[in-house]
Amino acid sequence: MYTFAANLVKLILTLFGRLRVHQKENIPKGKDGYVIACTHTGWVDILWLGVSMLPTKIHYMAKKELFKSKGLKWLMEHLNAFPVDRENPGPSTIKVPRRLLAEGKVVGIFPSGTRTSEEVPLKRGAVTIAGHSKVPILPVAYAGPNNFTDLFKRVKPHIIYGEPIYLPEGMSKKEGMEVMMEQLNVALNQLQEQLKES
Known about the structure:
This protein has about 200 residues and is α/β, with parallel strands linked by helices.
C-alpha cells in the first residue's frame, strides 16, 4: 500500500513540477535505522519527503487527532504513520519509534511540531528518540509548494539532505543529547539557507 500510494503521489505531484533533491549522498547506507528530522511548512512537504526517499519507507510520527475517524485511521496506518499525543507526551511515546528503529526502519519526525515558515524552537522528540535508540538523525530541509495554491502556481520543490548527526561519545547521554539538539538546530537552519541560495 505504501509503495503504491507513494508512486501515485509522485506521479500526481510531478504534474505540478519536478522535485530537485540535493545532497542525497548524505542518506545513511546499510540496514540500520535512523531518524529523519525535516522542516515543516505545509502538508506538501510530507508527501515530497516520502517520494524523495523511495524505495525506502518512512514511518511518520503523527498527531493522534489524525487517527480519530476510522477512514483516516486506516489510511494513516497503511501509510506507515503512528499516533503520538503531543499535548501529553509520556514514556510510552517513544516505545513505537524505538521498536521501529531497532528493526532497522526509518522514522520521520517534524521537530518544529507544527507547520510554520517561521524559525521556532525545536521540540525534543527527534533527539530523545535517536539518543535513546543510539541511531543518527538525518537533518532535511524542504522549500517549495505548501498548499494547492502553490502547486497551481508551479512553485518548484526542493529537498536537501544534511550530514547525519550522531550521539557524541565520551559524555553522558544527557549531555550528548544536548549537543545533538544544538547540532540539529544549526543544521536545519544552514540547510534552509542553502536552499534559498540554490
